Amino acid sequence: MSILNRLASLQNRRDEVPNQELARDLARSKDKAGIREIAENLWNKDKKIQADCIKVLYEIGVLEPKLIAGYAEDFIKLLRNKDNRLVWGAMTALAEVAKADADIVFKNLDAIKKAKETGSVITIDNAISTLAFTVSADQKYSKVIFPYLLQHLSSCRPKEVPQHSERTFPAVNSKNKNEFIKVLEKRMEDLSGGGLARVKKLIKQAASIA
């Protein structure tokens, strides 16, 4: 029996629970054949099956990034898809891939930047995480990626500063923390309330990095 029968859409379910349960089972059992079948169906003609499959894959990635790293090229291709659900799902998956294989993400840096510049709010959020995790996994990429992240934090809308700063934080280390703090201190002028409190907390955390 095909593993696809466990997908939410093929069970006529509108919730994500079947997809989450399938992802958990595949990750726990490290079922590479099952994961391959899910990845192959990212290109299914049925959009609902495609959406279910990207959901299953990024949920596997949250649990075991290495199990989906081999499908990074598929996720990169999906960044150019016209279906927004597949684009942000692919970027969510790439954020997890970055933890296991920073090299493949860096190799496709231009595609990730382009998707970030043109993508939805969720795509942008996850692009920042993808780039930050790439730096945290291998510091040799910091010189290229970190200035780009700081530029984004300097120019994004005030309401985006707290979350995007938090998503950038994995890329912060003892060598670049002062630059990060400097940008956030400047952006504090635009913030108030809960957003300001979140940024102050991040500045404190960054300052304590040894």
Describe what this molecule looks like in 3D.
- The protein has helices at 17-29, 32-40, 47-63, 66-69, 72-78, 84-100, 102-107, 109-118, 121-137, 142-155, 161-168, 177-187, 193-207.
- It is built from 13 helices and no strands.
- It starts with 16 loop residues before the first helix and ends with a helix.
- The chain has a domain at 140-210.
- Helix 5 runs antiparallel to helix 6 (84-100), helix 6 (84-100) packs parallel to helix 9 and helix 12 runs antiparallel to helix 13.
State the low-pLDDT regions, or none: none
How much of the sequence lies in strands comes to under 5%
The coarse silhouette is: elongated
Oligomer: single chain
Radius of gyration: 18 Å
What would you say about this model in short?
The chain has a domain at 140-210.
List keywords for this structure.
elongated, about 210 residues, mainly alpha
Q: What is the element layout, followed by pairings?
A:
Blueprint: H1 17-29, H2 32-40, H3 47-63, H4 66-69, H5 72-78, H6 84-100, H7 102-107, H8 109-118, H9 121-137, H10 142-155, H11 161-168, H12 177-187, H13 193-207
Helix pairs in contact: 1-3, 3-6, 5-6, 6-9, 8-9, 9-10, 9-11, 11-13, 12-13
